[in-house]
Amino acid sequence: MAFDNIKLDKGLYTSSKGFTKSLEEIDPSENYVGTELEGLDAFQRQLKRFNIKVNSEESDRVDKFFQTTDSAVLFPEYINRAVRQGMEQNDILSKIVATTTNIDSFDYRTIESCPEEEDKTLAEVAEGAVIPETVIKTKEELVRLKKRGRMLVATYEALKFQRLDLFTVTLKQIGAQIARDLSADAISALTENEDIEVSTKTQIDYQTIVELWNKFDPYTLTTVISNASTLEKILMLPEFRDSNAGLDFHATGKLITPLGAEIVKAPVNEGDFLLGIDKNYALEMVKAGDVSVEYDKIIDRQLERAAITSIAGFSPICSDATKAVIISAE
Description:
This protein has 330 residues and is of the alpha/beta class. Among the domains are: 1-49, no CATH class; 194-285 and 316-327, hypothetical protein PF0899 fold. 31% of the residues lie in helices and 18% in strands. The protein has helices at 11-14, 19-26, 42-49, 69-72, 75-89, 156-159, 164-191, 206-214, 228-235, 243-252, 295-299; strands at residues 99-102, 111-112, 137-138, 146-152, 197-201, 223-226, 262-265, 272-277, 283-287, 292-293, 306-316, 322-327. α5 crosses α7 (164-191). The termini are far apart. 28% of the residues are buried.
């Protein structure tokens, strides 16, 4: 089959489409429908071509990737996928972000549409009268993108005899940390927005959560974000000892408030707070590509200092879709 004869080189990484999409164009997965290779993507077929096992008790050693110059080209994509797997396993952005925008530069100016109170309903328009307007405009500030990442520091000699399943765990830890950093950036973008409504309470109780829920009309409170200390207080509320809520938490670990909003534990530690959002309208994520791996160094076995990075920023969309509660003892 075609995948056995593909010439692999570094140029697949320099394409704007990325490694996997570029490889898929050369070796489309649709050509394998009805064969034993159906369900594998182009990268996975290359692993099979070189008989590289990465995720089993019989996984190969790292040096299996470097048996040929072609198979060595696969190693950065293996690292990329392991890191992204760690990010996905520690993902909370999908519960916070309304939309994701991919850009190819560091400069990005987003749009906003924040209607006044009287604009939130469609008024009856008399014949010949002016139809009310919803104004969409470009924000004055650029979205600030941050480069997050970790440096992979190791020699090829130190890694080449290690099993790939163990190395995958280490890479997933890097991905998990990047995911936590991105989540903290997302929450900061929401809390630092001066236009959101902020109220102060002296304690966490059921009434506080109900009041937060009630402020969202015409939006819907879909997600409640809090840090570990606040979450501990919420879990001790009598309403969370309800049999159904308790069974859901004990059986699945999934937290649902008595009002139906999902609770997300935030990777921040400053003070007690509740942040309520309608995830469908609150936040935009802006990315300059996906996870980036320094493929040149890795293919050439120069692993002493190889960077794994992600460039992203966050911008509030509609301020009314976010409400904050600060818990203060004073």
